[in-house]
Amino acid sequence: MTDAVVVQGPSEGNEAIAVRDLSKRFEDVQAVDGVSFTVERGELFGFLGPNGAGKTTTINLLTGLARPDAGSVRVGGIDCTGRPRAAQHLVGVVPDESNLYPELTGYENLCFCAALYGMPRDERRERARELLKTFALAGASDRKFAGYSKGMKRKLTIAAGIIHRPEILFLDEPTTGIDVASARQLRQLVADLHDGGTTIFLTTHYIEEAERLCDRIAFIVSGRIVRIDSVGRLLEPVKKKHVVRVSFSSAPGDLTGGLRESFPELHAQLAGDEVIRVESDGPVRVGPLIRFLEDRGAEVTEARRVRPSLEDVFVEITGLEADAMRREKEKKGGGQ
Amino acid sequence: MKLWTAFLNILAKDMRTYYLKPPNVSWGLIFPLAWTGMFFVRSGSGLESIPTLLPGVVAVSVLFGTTSMLAVTVTFEKKNRSFERLLLAPIPLELLMLAKTSGAILFGVANAFVPVLLAAFLADLSGLAWGTFVPAVALIAVASTFLGLFIAVAVSEVFEAQTFSNFLRFPMIFLCGLFFPIAKLPVFLRPLSYALPLTYGADLLHGSVHGAHSMPFALDFAILGAFCVALFAASLVNIRRKWIA
Ligand SMILES: Nc1ncnc2c1ncn2[C@@H]1O[C@H](COP(=O)(O)OP(=O)(O)OP(=O)(O)O)[C@@H](O)[C@H]1O
Ligand SMILES: [Mg+2]
C-alpha cells in the first residue's frame, strides 16, 4: 500500500545513492553479491564490468524493478529497503533495451512518459518538442516508434528517461548501438546534465567513455565490486608506466622471447598479429628496439607511445581482456 | 492532481492504441450479434424469447470483451518490456493497475449495450429494471476485467493468457446459470456454480430483465463486489511477487 508514498527522510549527508551489502540471487546465479557503495549528489558514477557482471540487476534493485534478497538501499535520502518503489519520483531510468510503445509516435511517446510523472499538458508538449530537437529526431517526431531505426529508438529512449528532469539518472549502456556522431553528442548531453547538477549512474562497456565522463568508477565482476575509485586515482599506478606499441610486417616467428633477453628492463608482449606492446617503468628508447627488430627481419612500420588508460587498469584488476569483452558485446548486437 | 494526470493518460493511451482500434470495435459488434443469432437458431424460438436470452448474451459480450483485452494491455506490454515504464513511474501500484484496467471495464460495458440496443429494436424492454441492470452490467465488467487481470499477471506469454482464459470462460458460461438454470445442473456441479462470480451477475441480469432471480439483489451485488476486491487484491499480490521480484 505504501509503494509510492513520498516519505522524505532526513536527507542523510550528501548521498544520492547509498547501498550496503546488496545481494540478489536468480535460481542458480548470484547476480549481485554483497555490493556496497555510495554516490554523492551531483556525481557521475560509472559502473563497469563484463557481460553478466550484475550491472543491470543493480540498477533494477535501485529503481524498484527488483527486490533485493539482502542489504539496504537509500535513494535520494529515502530508505527504499523493503519499499523498492519509494524513491521513484526522484529517478529517471534509461533501460538497456529501447522499450517505448511501438504504436505511438516519437512525440506521443515522450508526452506519455512525461504524463506518467504528472507533468501538465503544455509543459509536456514543449518539453517533448525540445528533446526531439536535442536528439535530432524532430523530423521523425510524427512517425511511429516501431518504424524507428535502432539508433533512433535508443535516442528516444534516452529522451524519455530525462523528460521529467530527474534528480538521479540511471543510464544502462546508453551509447551501445548508436553511431559515433550520436554517441559523441550523447556524451556531451550526459556531461551537460552532470554540469547541471544531475546525479548520474552510468553503466558501460566502453572504458574510454567511462574514463572521459565519470568522476568515480566501480569495477564489478561476477556480482562483486572489485574496486571503486576516482578516475585519477585508478590511473595512478599505470600513469608512471611507459607503454610503446611497435607495429611491423613480415615478422619471422615470435620475437618477444629475444626481446626479453636483450632488453630485460622492458616487458614485451604480443598485442596482435604484428604488434608488440612494450611496457617499462622508465622512458623506452625506441632506437635500439627498432634496430633489434629490423635486424631480425621485421619491417617496422610504426612505433608509438600509448597513453596508459583505464583499460590497462581494468585488465589488471579484473584479469579480463577488455577488448575481448567489448567485441563480444558488439557481436551480441549492440544490446538491442 | 499529478496522479490524476498519469491515470487519465494511461487510460487514454490504452483507449487509443487498443480499444478504439477498428478490429476491436468491429469485434465488439460482431461477437454479441453472433451469439444472439446462435441462440435464436438453437432454441428455434421467436422474438418473444429475447428477454430470456438477453442476459446471457450481455454477460458473454462483457466477459469476452474484457478478459481478451488484458492479454494485450498487460501481458503483451510486460513481455515487450514497456510495462517497466509504468512500474518505474511514481504511481501507487493500485492506482496504476486501476488505470490499466479501466479501459477494459469501459470497453466491456460498451460491448454489453450492443445486444441491449439490438433487443430494444426487436422487443419491448419497458419492463427492464434499469436501476439494477446498469449497475449489474458495470459490476460484471469490473469482475471479469479483474479476472482477466488475474490471468494476465499469472502468465508470461500472450498465448498462455488466452488459453488460460478460455479454459475458464467456456465452462463458466455454462455453469453460471446464464443459459441453463443452475437448478437443472447435475447436483455435483452446483457448488462449482456458486464459486463463480458470473453466477451472481447472471442472477442480477435475469432478475432485472425478466424478473426471475433466485437470490436477493443485495446479496448478488455484495458477493460480486467481494469477487472484484479479491481478484484485484490477488492480482496485486502476484505483481508484487513476480514482477518486482
Ligand atoms: N530475471 C533474471 N532471471 C534469471 N537470471 C537473471 C535475471 N536477470 C539477470 N540474471 C542473471 O544475473 C546475472 C547478471 O545479469 P545482469 O543483467 O545484471 O548483467 P549485466 O552486468 O547487466 O550484463 P550486460 O553487460 O550483458 O548487460 C547474469 O548471470 C544473468 O544471467
Ligand atoms: Mg546489462
Task: Give a quick rundown of the structure.
The complex is a heterodimer of chains A (336) and B (245). Chain A is an alpha/beta fold and 336 residues long.
Structural notes for this entry:
- The complex is a heterodimer of chains A (about 325) and B (about 240).
- By secondary structure, chain A is α/β, with parallel strands linked by helices.
- Chain A folds into two domains: about 5-230, Rossmann fold (3-Layer(aba) Sandwich); about 240-305, Alpha-Beta Plaits (2-Layer Sandwich), CATH 3.30.70.
- Chain A has eleven helices and 14 strands.
- Chain A has helices at about 55-65, 105-115, 120-135, 150-160, 180-195, 205-215, 230-240, 255-260, 285-295, 310-320, 320-330, and strands spanning about 15-25, 30-40, 45-50, 70-75, 80, 90-95, 170, 200-205, 215-220, 225-230, 240-250, 265-270, 275-280, 300-305.
- A six-stranded mixed β-sheet of chain A has the order 6-7-8-3-9-10, with helices on both faces. In chain A, strands 2-1-4-5 form a four-stranded antiparallel β-sheet, with helices on one face. Chain A has a four-stranded antiparallel β-sheet with strand order 12-13-11-14, covered by helices on one side.
- The longest helix of chain A is centred in the middle third of the chain and has 16 residues, at about 180-195.
- The radius of gyration of chain A is 23 Å and the shape is globular.
- With about 240 residues, chain B is mostly helical.
- Chain B has one domain.
- Helix content of chain B is about 80%, strand content about 0%.
- Chain B has ten helices and no strands.
- In chain B, helix 2 (about 20-45) packs antiparallel against helix 3 (about 50-80).
- Chain B is globular.
- Chain B starts with a helix and ends with a helix.
- The model of chain B has no long low-confidence stretch (mean pLDDT about 90).
- Classes of the chains: A alpha/beta (about 325), B mainly alpha (about 240).
